[in-house]
Design brief:
It contains 8 helices and 5 strands, in the order βαβααβααβααβα. With 209 residues, it is an alpha/beta fold. It has a single domain, classed as P-loop containing nucleotide triphosphate hydrolases (Rossmann fold, 3-Layer(aba) Sandwich), CATH 3.40.50.300. The protein binds thymidine-5'-diphosphate.
Amino acid sequence: MKRGCFLTLEGGEGVGKTTNLAFIDDFLRRRGIEVVVTREPGGVPVAEKLRELILDETGLLPEAELLLIFAGRVHHVRDKILPALERGQWVVSDRFVDASYAYQGGGRGLSWRRIEYLEDWLVAGCRPDLTFLFDAPVEIGLGRARARGDINRFEEETVAFLERVRQAYLERWRREPGRICRIDASRPLAEVQEAIAARLSRLVETWRK
Ligand code: TYD
């Protein structure tokens, strides 16, 4: 059985990840691919419980936040992502490890070295094959996220915090331009989805060979 592909969606607040996740799911299913859609923080019951804590608890130390995210992630990877990939299914996750580099690293100021250590220790063997980074100026995304209501503690952060998150994501992209596909999320949705479809078609083709 051929291993499935692991896709992740990343970006700041209000950049359209949810809409495009549905688009990607549909795109792959139409091509006969079995898809497991998931998210972080969360994805499995214990990690969903931790998600509530991570998104709602005020006054969490950055170090505690990082460790809680990885606590959920190790279950997510071992209980759900790896088994699905091994069954030949594709996994599409709304956020993954790059979000820790962006939010806990860029946003909260923790060193990337420590995050790398946790990544190597806990989620080795689970690198995304492809990551879509939805990138837009902070003000645009924040406006959309706030208009939607129901904001979490990250969406209440200062513009400076979210700007650091954006810059950290862009740094990830500059370091791994082969894996990370940057999408200009300030463009009209039709153009965004055209760019996604083009990149996905290539991946499906290579996978089928
Ligand atoms: P988000 O993905 O924006 O979900 P929704 O908008 O659908 O509620 O919320 C998840 C939040 O978790 C997001 O604001 C960023 C944060 N987060 C981190 O800080 N680090 C991480 O490693 C992950 C996966 C998420």
